[in-house]
Design a protein that fits this description.
The protein is mostly helical. It has 21 helices and two strands.
């Protein structure tokens, strides 16, 4: 009796999936792979940049809301700042599973289009100070859609490149993508100052600070991103294809059984969690700590420097991690974070504005070393895990670290509530960084380490 015939697997849609992809094959890479990989990197990176802008849009808006008539307490402002982080981490857990099932083309296109929901929503609500708080919280949560994109975009990119270039490629994508944070904090003060879109965008709001009043168009801060998001999503649909590395939902959970998934998650929480958390809270920290002095600085005039420094260092540190090894560079980042955090703790109970430059200097140092660590940890993951699992770990660690804005905002708020200041928060952060230095040194950096990388 003959064996029953086996039904052939359905062919992959050639408009979405590549027929094969072997980047470690030098001949394939030079003849075909290199050009497509770099083209895909730039398209995905452009979309990721504006995803980060939407994710951190709320942090640029909240410092202006009370001055245009919104009746919000300090605790409510910190919760609005925290909500995109909570959502971003949650959405990343979902995104982490999408690329091996639906492919980069569909995921990048439709997740980018989803950013139009919070962008348009904020355009509407900032024009009405009577908007209920739950509506503001809902839109703050939806801004987290931008944070979620990271955990599908980055694993997709990791599949395109050979291991020897993954540190550089992932650092470029994440570093430039992270610039979206600086863009939103740098562009906002400028774009809200005049009727950039004319009467079509709506009427101005009256901004009041002390005895000074002026018209601002806060809706412009969100509206400016709408055309970019739409155009880049269309470009992604027509340009991107997907590497044929596939797995079901169930198969992708195998990474959770590996202890290195959890160790690398802690290391990435130290680096990107710090970058994202302080990016979201830096403006409010400046306002809360130094806003009471005469001639107090405008938070957004300084806040964008932090994400900018972190983003640039992430881009530059990628090639260094490829050359010297990710674990060595992560050690440097951890030591720098410990020293910078201890340093800034001396300037969070200021007696005058003379202390402000030192506060900003140490905060920028935190961003500097967090940016370096963001790149080096992403070099470590592809060296520890095989390609499909490495992509999953990159997405998963990114998801957990995306809770940084939520965790940092809430912990700062609680530190203020319990102790009257933020010194306790920064001391706790230094202890966390020290623990992660020990983890990285023992498992990945020391001679004869278990997974030296």
């Amino acid at each position: 009796m003959s064996a029953p015939a086996t039904e052939p697997k359905p062919a992959l849609d050639s408009r979405t999936w590549l027929s094969h992809w072997t980047p470690e094959d030098t001949t394939f890479w030079e003849q075909e792979g290199k050009q497509r990989a770099w083209r895909s990197l730039w398209v995905t990176t452009a979309n990721l940049t504006f995803a980060f802008s939407i994710w951190f849009l709320v942090s640029a808006l909240v410092v202006r809301l009370p001055a245009i008539g919104f009746q919000l307490t300090t605790d409510e402002l910190f919760w609005l700042t925290a909500m995109p982080g909570l959502a971003g981490g949650s959405f990343r857990l979902i995104h982490n599973l999408l690329t091996p099932i639906y492919g980069a083309r569909h995921v990048v296109t439709f997740s980018s289009l989803s950013l139009l929901i919070p962008a348009v929503g904020w355009v509407i609500v900032v024009q009405d100070p009577t908007t209920p708080y739950w509506v503001l919280m809902t839109l703050a949560f939806l801004a987290g859609l931008g944070g979620g994109n990271f955990s599908s975009f980055m694993p997709a990119t990791s599949l395109f490149f050979p291991k020897r270039l993954q540190g550089t490629a992932l650092a470029i994508q994440a570093g430039i993508g992270n610039l979206g944070v600086s863009i939103v904090q740098f562009v906002t003060p400028w774009i809200i100052g005049f009727a950039f879109f004319g009467a079509a965008a709506g009427a101005p709001q009256v901004f009041t600070k002390g005895e000074v009043t002026k018209d601002i168009w806060l809706q412009n801060a969100a509206l400016i991103y709408v055309p970019f998001i739409f155009v880049l999503a269309v470009v992604a649909w027509f340009i991107l294809r997907s590497v044929p590395v596939r797995a079901s939902f169930k198969e992708q959970f195998d990474i959770n059984k590996n202890k290195h998934t959890w160790l690398m998650t802690s290391l990435y929480l130290m680096t990107f969690g710090s970058f994202a958390g302080f990016s979201a809270t830096f403006p409010l920290l400046i306002k809360q700590l130094y806003g009471g002095f005469e001639g107090a600085p405008d938070p957004l005039a300084y806040a964008f420097y932090g994400p900018l420094v972190g983003s640039v260092m992430r881009t530059l540190a990628g090639p260094l991690a490829d050359k010297f090894g990710g674990a060595r560079v992560t050690n440097v980042a951890a030591v720098g974070l410990i020293a910078s955090t201890i340093g800034v703790a001396f300037y969070v109970t200021p007696e005058s504005l003379a202390e402000f430059p030192y506060f900003v200097g140490f905060m920028l140092a935190i961003f500097f070393f967090a940016g370096i660590g963001n790149a080096s940890t992403f070099k470590q993951m592809p060296m520890i895990f095989p390609p499909r699992q490495a992509g999953g770990v990159i997405g998963f660690t990114g998801a957990i670290a995306a809770y940084g804005p939520f965790a940092v905002s809430i912990m700062i708020g609680q530190s203020i509530a319990w102790t009257g200041g933020v010194t306790a928060f920064f001391c706790t952060a230094a202890v966390f960084y020290l623990a992660n230095f020990a983890i990285n040194w023992w498992y990945y950096a020391r001679p004869n380490a278990e997974a030296k990388c």
